[in-house]
Design goal:
seven-stranded mixed sheet; globular; Purple Acid Phosphatase, chain A, domain 2; 2 domains
Length: 316
């Protein structure tokens, strides 16, 4: 049975000490109810309730071992995916992502899968006698690029990394060939990305927005993702870079594809045999106001060195 509702002063104390998710657990109610009451208190008293800092342990309450739950009142979440980082190549989207990490000052920054390409352990056969980067070369490149992002972002920013199917290649190959090394330091991909990057299958924001690498597939994936999940869902994997709104009696939610931080015709994708691709390079910024997700904003690469964001173009 749900616990009795607390008075306004107690609610404010609980919320500012614990955030929405933990307050909901303490009171025995849903997170949506907590956020609804928080907004009513803010409007009626002309105040702004603040939950704990985004990267504090109170914000990182995982109800599932593979799920990280975070709270966001007013601020920015920056999300990039499918970087497929390749030695010797720094994409325009990556440069723009670092710039936005400094300019927008996000409270939360998410790498939404496929940081690693895993070319030498790919399911795709080699294209002739091409030279592929070694696993170690890829890992060194990933560490360099992730450090550039981390250093550009604010010091209090929280970092999560949702596992992608290419990221899985690293551990899948080792699990198949050397299962006896399980849990040995270095055998897991997270051992190589730094302690700042919290690994997970999905990152949940305000219990309303789900960020994970993939769910549905196909040209209508963003629509099907949010319809079937019942949440706003941000995915990568398909490299399509788009926002699809969906409205019903519950309001409007969004299916978002974060595109790719790589170049669509980069060396990572030679197995595509120079076929036309419905891929776009860029990333997404989520803006929250008093806990409400505003229309997601896309940063799109127009050409090498030139991107567009919120109606403006700029060089990187």
């Amino acid at each position: 049975m749900a616990k009795a509702a607390c008075d306004e002063a107690e609610f404010i104390r609980l919320f500012e000490a614990n955030g929405a998710a933990e307050t909901a657990r303490i009171l025995g109610v849903g997170v949506r109810n907590v956020n609804y009451r928080r907004r009513n208190i803010e409007r009626s008293n002309s105040v702004q309730l603040r939950s704990p800092a985004p990267n504090s342990p109170d914000r990182l309450s995982a109800q599932h071992p593979a799920r990280i739950k975070m709270e966001m009142n007013t601020g920015v979440v920056l999300i990039g995916s499918d970087a497929h980082y390749w030695p010797g190549h720094i994409s325009t989207a990556h440069k723009a992502f670092c710039l936005m990490a400094a300019e927008l000052k996000p409270q939360i920054l998410i790498m939404n899968g496929d940081v690693v390409d895993g070319a030498s352990i790919s399911r795709h056969p080699p294209m002739g006698w091409e030279e592929l980067p070694s696993v170690n070369e890829e890992l060194e490149t990933c560490r360099e690029r992730l450090d550039e992002i981390r250093k550009a972002a604010p010091k209090k920013c929280a970092f999560t990394w949702t596992l992608g199917n290419h990221d899985q290649r690293f551990e899948a190959r080792l699990a198949a060939r050397a299962p006896e090394y399980a849990r040995v330091t270095g055998i897991h991909l997270k051992d190589h990305f730094g302690i700042e990057w919290a690994p997970c299958w999905s990152t949940w924001i305000n219990d309303e927005v789900v960020v994970k690498h993939r769910f549905r597939s196909g040209v209508h994936a963003t629509h099907n993702n949010t319809v079937n999940a019942g949440k706003s869902m941000v995915t990568g994997h398909l490299h399509s870079l788009k926002v699809t709104p969906f409205s019903d009696y519950n309001g409007t939610r969004y299916g978002v594809d974060t595109g790719t931080l790589a170049e669509p015709d980069g060396p990572q994708f030679e197995y595509g045999e120079d076929n036309p691709k419905n891929h776009r390079s860029g990333f997404v910024a989520l803006f929250f106001e008093q806990g409400r997700l505003l229309w997601p904003q896309i940063c799109h690469v127009l050409e090498p060195g030139l991107v567009e964001f919120r109606g403006e173009t700029f060089r990187v």
